[in-house]
DNA sequence: GTTGAAATTAGTACGAA
DNA sequence: TTCGTACTAATTTCAAC
């Protein structure tokens, strides 16, 4: 349950295209901004804050839900106070052609809060919440390791969660900090240009330190023991 | 804004202890289970589903909010349909003694959805939502790289988000037959359907492939160019 | 912790701009 | 389409038990 990939047509995994059906406008965006911070706001108050009538607010809210822009309204609970004080990231390497089984197994693990398929050294990242570190270790060695689709894992603990935003929206890209005056990346508000490589920008930062990890780089060493 | 560490006493970063103030019971848990899946449910319906009166439901809901167990009610929006089709993970190595500056810079980056301090090869993991891959590249090379606290980064793209659960609760932990008898968080009467897939499959996977990455392992090579 | 009544709000329908 | 209004059902608040 709680499957994602709502925008993926099939199980292929690549996020699909944008906004079929509903034509998002500034009012829709504003509604999203308000709702992600207070999902229990009354429709009347929502209508007033975005400056439309109450009836229109109902219509638009229904449209947002029906079109899948809003997937659900949820409560953000403090996992620590709820009794799950340990958060870990499990990076797993998945045997090819066993993805379907891997996904099926994940659905059976309720302690998994998030799972994403990634490029890079590993194939997937799983975030779990557990009561203690021993439980994480048990989970990894006794349950994850028993999944045939899992070839290798790497465990990393989360020491602190600095910030979690209810969900980023395009309209968030506005204010830029002033402390990098060498570059003023056009704080626009509505039109979204395809973020060109910014031809004018000679970077003064040594980019040699930056590593861009593609789809299969560095994975060979983990595959070598698979045959 | 949207700072986390609500359970950390200061900015030290280590998640703190559990449930100060409020004594969680089975009814509180059940309310959380319901609210994380439908934050807009009426209190009357919530009261009926957990089997208490409405007034009690109001009282308990207020308590959950006041105690911080429920941090907020939010809307899960489909970022793809909202216009941010690309999700990336940025693993960054942070210069020691510059953590405070690093956190301050993060607060200025609205495209950041999540940031956690981790053990392992890197120091922090940042999840960003962007309209396209070029925007990610621009963000990494021109904004992240300009932060003095950032020593190195590694970018990984998310190809698919397999699942996201609104927030894991202790009651999610299905009954484990035998593997962790030291902690048994009493799943009570939650009707958790047993999966058809055998959880205790034969351990045919060599555990030697499992890597457990501690706090500083493998980090030396990224620090070598810092002096 | 529970009930019940008053005040408020939600949800829907319909006509008009 | 969107808005404004009216109307009924449902919810929240507050009181007393």
Helices and strands in order:
Two copies of one chain form a homodimer.
Chain A (H helix, E strand, L loop, with lengths): L25 H12 L5 H8 L3 H13 L3 E8 L1 H4 L3 E9 L4 H9 L4 E7 L5 E7 L2 H12 L5 E15 L45 E3 L7 H4 L4
Antiparallel strand pairs in A: 2-4, 2-5, 3-4
Helix pairs in contact in A: 1-2, 2-3
Chain B binds a DNA duplex (17 and 17 nucleotides) through α2 and α3.
Give structural notes.
By secondary structure, the first copy, chain A, is of the alpha+beta class. Among the domains of chain A are: 26-67, Arc Repressor Mutant, subunit A (Orthogonal Bundle), CATH 1.10.10.10; 86-157, Lrp/AsnC effector binding domain/regulation of amino acid metabolism (RAM) domain (Alpha-Beta Plaits), CATH 3.30.70. Chain A has helices at residues 26-37, 43-50, 54-66, 79-82, 99-107, 133-144, 220-223, and strands spanning 70-77, 86-94, 112-118, 124-130, 150-164, 210-212. The first copy, chain A, has a four-stranded antiparallel β-sheet. In chain A, helix 2 packs across helix 3 (54-66). Chain A starts with 25 loop residues before the first helix and ends with a helix. In chain A, 37% of the residues are buried. Residues 5-19, 175-209 and 215-227 of chain A have low confidence and may be disordered. Chains A and B meet through helix 1, strand 1, helix 4, strand 2 and helix 5 of A and helix 1, strand 1, helix 4, strand 2 and helix 5 of B. The structure holds a DNA duplex (17 and 17 nucleotides).
């Amino acid at each position: 349950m709680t499957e994602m990939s709502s925008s993926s047509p099939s199980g292929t995994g690549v996020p699909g295209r944008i906004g079929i059906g509903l034509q998002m406008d500034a009012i829709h965006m504003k509604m999203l901004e308000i709702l992600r911070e207070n999902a229990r706001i009354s429709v009347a108050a929502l209508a007033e804050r975005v400056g439309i009538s109450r009836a229109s607010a109902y219509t638009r809210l229904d449209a947002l839900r029906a079109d899948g822009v809003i997937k659900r309204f949820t409560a953000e609970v403090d996992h620590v106070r709820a009794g799950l004080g340990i958060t870990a990231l499990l990076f797993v390497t998945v045997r090819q052609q066993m993805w379907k089984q891997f996904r099926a197994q994940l659905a059976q693990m309720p302690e998994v809060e998030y799972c994403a398929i990634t490029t890079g050294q590993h194939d997937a990242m799983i975030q779990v919440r557990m009561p203690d570190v021993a439980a994480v270790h048990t989970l990894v060695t006794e349950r994850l390791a028993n999944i045939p689709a899992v070839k290798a894992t790497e465990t990393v603990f989360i020491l602190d969660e600095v910030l979690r935003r209810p969900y980023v929206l395009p309209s968030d890209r506005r204010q830029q900090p002033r402390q990098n005056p060498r570059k003023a990346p056009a704080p626009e508000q509505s039109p979204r240009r395809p973020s060109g490589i910014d031809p004018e920008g000679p970077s003064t930062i040594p980019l040699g330190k930056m590593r861009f990890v593609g789809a299969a780089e560095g994975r060979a060493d983990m595959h070598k023991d698979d045959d």
